[in-house]
Amino acid sequence: MSSTGERDYDKYLNDLGRRRKPALLRTLDDKYAVAPPDTMKMAGGYCSPNIFPFKNISVELKDGTSFSIEGDDLTEAVQYQPTGGFPPLRKQLKEIIDHFNKPPYDAETIIVSGHQDGICKVFEMMLERGRPLFLADPSYASGIDMMRPYVPDYRPIAEDADGIIPELLHKELEKVRIASGGDYNKMGNLLYLVPHGSNPAGTSIPEERLKKIYKLACDYDLIILEDDPYFFHYYTEERPVSFLTMDTDQRVIRVAGLTKLMTPGFRIAMATGPKPLIQKIEYHMQITVGHVSSISQMIVHKMLNAWGMQGFIKQVEIVRSYYRSVCEIAVNAAKKHLTGLVKFHVPKAGMFIWMEVVGVDDVTELVMTRAAARGVMVVPGSAFMAPRPGGPPANCIRVSFGTIDPNKIDKAFKILAEVIREEVKHQKTFKNSKTNGIAA
Ligand SMILES: Cc1ncc(COP(=O)(O)O)c(C=O)c1O
User: Fold this and answer.
1) What domains appear along the chain, each with residue ranges and CATH number?
2) Using a 6 Å cutoff on CB, does residue 257 contact ligand 1?
């Protein structure tokens, strides 16, 4: 099942994905981008630079770097760009991928409009009503929201402190294989994971486990969608590895970008993987977003130019050390105030702590009313659980320490502890009144 080379990637796609073709007009943009200056460009609906109202855009960074965007660069920064990305930036981002996550084959990379855009388009081309879809339990809430309209047959795989448990994945794959009667269209085609600093579980999959999961993907012919916004948020000294790096079988689509590393608002992420699959994402972008904002791309291009790889690595270190220290504050505060009230794993990366609340079956009221009324906002864990018969468990919460002022974390967890105690008391009273036959 695991042959490389001229694989027919259409087998992994649904009808929509198979039917998606290049849009001629947007394909011409690629030619425009490399056409000699004297080309008589009368093909695209490009605007004349004469009508652009901008003269100069100046950028100053906190580290003292500064640059201005003017002349031809300014025209590029406000003009249409090829769908796959502003070519000089695409080249720079490919260099970054090759530096940290070099795939063992000549993979394709395009710039997508944030991770959301990349993963949503993969779901759109692969998911089918009733077809098994493997995912971590819990998984990224917006990912589940993206999957919902396709009504897949969710196969959530439980996690421990190191992410999904390969033995459970294997068991589920085998169950599906037997039920499919050997028909690949009834077997799962996709495994969706956030392998590092998972949102919401805060888990990171160690290399040995990644390899086991990758082998299962090869054995059962799955595409892995590696949603990796927190790759650079690791707190350990050893840099993690990605599925992409081990993808000798060319079956990983990795979406990883700059949103969590420098600026979410620029909407810059990269989708990397086998060309036939990445092209389908690009065709979809051609007729939806067109391309990621040109000005975002130009600013990042200029910034990376000024920084070089060393400057990029410096930013990675700033991000790592910031979140590592906030995580430490959050974990200490959780131990101080929430011991005995919640169970949690200490994250090794990312910006989330997943807490199982002890003695509360349903945290919705606790989170949405009690905690919110006292100024603490967290998310009920059910938002991150795939739909299932009887509904998902509702006894977990996700805490993010990404934005909060670290000085407020202690107070926030103190309040959280108080509202959990109140909720436990309330639920006990409610249960007692029901057993005693008193209307609650
Ligand atoms: C796992 C995961 N995937 C995707 C996203 C969306 O990222 P972006 O802002 O790049 O679209 C997030 C953001 O919170 C995330 O945690």
Assistant:
1) 23-308 (3.40.640.10), 318-434 (3.90.1150.10)
2) yes
